[in-house]
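debug: dumping io for the single-chain case to check the tokenizer round-trip. Nothing else runs in this session.
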Amino acid sequence: MTNRANHAFPGPDNVYRTQLDNGITLLVRENHAAPVVVLDGYLAVGSIHEPADRAGLASFTASLLTRGSSRYDFDSFNETVEAVGASVSAGAGDHQTSFSTESLAEDFPQMVELLADVLRRPTFPTEQIERVRGQWLVRLQEREQNTRSVASRRFHELLYGDHPYGRPGSGYPETIQAISRENVVAFHRDNYGPEGAIVVISGDITTEAAVELIRAHVGDWRGTSPWQTLPPVSPQTDIRRESIAMPGKVQSDILIGSLAIARSDPDYFAVQVANSILGQFGMMGRLGEVVREEQGLAYYSYSMLDADIGPGPWLAAAGVNPANVELAVESIRAEFARLGAEPVSDEELSDSQANMTGRLPLALETNDGVTSQLLNMEWYGLGLDYLYRYADNINAITTADVQRVAAKYLRPDAYTLVVAGPE
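debug: decoded output
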């Protein structure tokens, strides 16, 4: 039975949800404990909508939003935000462009007006484009000198091939160099719009005031978002291994895993619980206990599930002495196999479940935590009562479920392995 006793959780009892006639979904959670208001939101445009030869365009465009708009140039934008100790930011992911602001309640209306202006009417000054491009290229150079970053980039390229998920959201030096101001202007014009957008507000504001504020600044916004259908992700049926030599480095970084599930998959909670046992709980689960502590093969070792609108990998990562690469890989693969071959103990299962459900109230103690949870609940269509159901969903997972999903997704005959480090 679903436990609705904790009404401190955001849900249908205390969250107002409405949809504006231009397609924006608005959620408001009042919290008058402190004079602060947080807004988080998504526009339905991301890197899957950029051409391959302009990889990084979505993120590049988002980073330029706060560099100049119809009412604020770069300096006046920063002066306005800093003068009241607020924050305003924007960025892009695979499927969405995120935006946020946090301020004292008395300054929130001004921050919403500013945020709406940079989202709707950015000017993309040429000098700012070139300044950001220069900074971007330096970060890409730094990425290619970091064994962990190189391993992650190449892992996704090998796993997804020419699918948009295989390209880094930050692009490549040659694609960032190729982006013109006209590309940025066109990407914003053709893809930024209110349709499918989500705005979440939590803090010291009445629902009525929040709705009025959003209607005033984006209620008249018109335009459609791309809603491009995600290309199908090809299932992995083989083993893909690659070593990347980075002379002069003293550590090797390993990524190994298999293509698993999308966020909407019925196995999501079972995989999350299994992943906690494998490489998250306590000192990073079994991987931390065995590979790092008992065998001394890694400086760090953990696992993660990356589930989005399309299927993502279930993978393990480790940083090791170059001499221990093969031993560490075999040890990680042995833990993959053990999880699928042997039932976990009742204690291991219950400890992980208690940890996962116990962390939730902590994540909801701040307005930031509330807006983040509500935003993702709306984005993935989880329902406003998702947090009320969360503990039941986690606690319903059995040892058989853990063993089943581990055997199904951590396959010995279909995985990707990338090692980046000294020769």
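debug: round-trip ok. The chain is about 45% helix and 15% strand.
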